[in-house]
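User: Just a sanity check before I run the rest of the batch. Below are the structure tokens for the first item. I only need the designed sequence back.
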């Protein structure tokens, strides 16, 4: 495993950026860009796969919201298909899954051309996105949803369980969050890979893997000038995680990467 050489510089920084080279399971080289903005208490990550799929992720620590914006290229052979389409997935963020924006901003990188390997594979998580989010009301979830997801238009998704977690038991907050969302008939809608007609509604499935990200801090022990044993940050732990999103589309035309229907 390639040794990670990332160090902490303890200075007051508005934002910082890392560019990380990662190989995916198929051996393709992916270049990730990570940005920490402690003044906004956010972290962003973005990359483009070789098939053209583009991911931009933003973590809003204050609202405990994670936003995935996915842009997928259209089918070249379909004259009626868009050149690309964007979807947004908005869900609860667990603070234990990532280092803080402040810690991220203090990371500095040696040997930027090195190919990085994660220390831990966190496997795959399936998220069933049962709700659609109204873009104009999305600021009640996070102020960053509107700017990130404006091009996704009606393809913005979340989950009822996340709304309940964000409301933290406050019925008034939960009610205001519900006003920004609407329910989809997920249980009665067929999967897109079983549907023949391209204008039929179905449940689409979209996987994405983040091959490398700083998922925690490492601490070392030493002695201060008085000889007292102290603990200090001396590096980061890195992880890989895959997610599979299931979500509702009004027509299979918006999910043409699913396997072709067979009679």
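Assistant: Here's the designed sequence for the first item:
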């Amino acid at each position: 495993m390639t040794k990670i050489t990332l160090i902490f510089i303890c200075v007051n920084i508005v934002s910082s950026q890392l560019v990380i080279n990662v190989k995916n399971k198929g051996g393709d080289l992916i270049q990730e860009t990570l940005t920490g903005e402690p003044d906004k208490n956010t972290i962003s990550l973005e990359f483009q796969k070789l098939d053209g799929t583009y991911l931009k992720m933003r973590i809003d620590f204050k609202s405990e919201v994670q936003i995935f914006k996915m842009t997928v290229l259209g089918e070249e052979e379909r004259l009626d298909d868009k050149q690309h389409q964007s979807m947004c997935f908005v869900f609860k963020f667990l603070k234990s899954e990532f280092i803080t924006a402040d810690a991220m901003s203090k990371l500095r990188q040696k040997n930027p051309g090195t190919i990085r390997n994660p220390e831990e594979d966190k496997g795959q998580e399936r998220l069933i996105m049962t709700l659609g989010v109204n873009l104009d009301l999305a600021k009640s979830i996070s102020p960053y949803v509107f700017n990130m997801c404006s091009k996704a238009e009606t393809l913005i998704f979340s989950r009822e369980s996340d709304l309940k977690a964000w409301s933290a038991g406050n019925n008034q907050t939960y009610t205001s969050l519900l006003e920004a969302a609407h329910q989809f008939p997920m249980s009665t809608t067929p999967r897109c890979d079983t549907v023949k007609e391209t204008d039929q509604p179905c449940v689409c499935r979209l996987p994405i893997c983040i091959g490398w990200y700083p998922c925690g801090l490492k601490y070392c022990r030493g002695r201060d000038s008085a000889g007292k044993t102290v603990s200090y940050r001396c590096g980061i732990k890195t992880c890989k995680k895959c997610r599979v999103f299931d979500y509702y589309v009004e027509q299979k035309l918006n999910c043409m990467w699913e396997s072709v229907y067979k009679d």
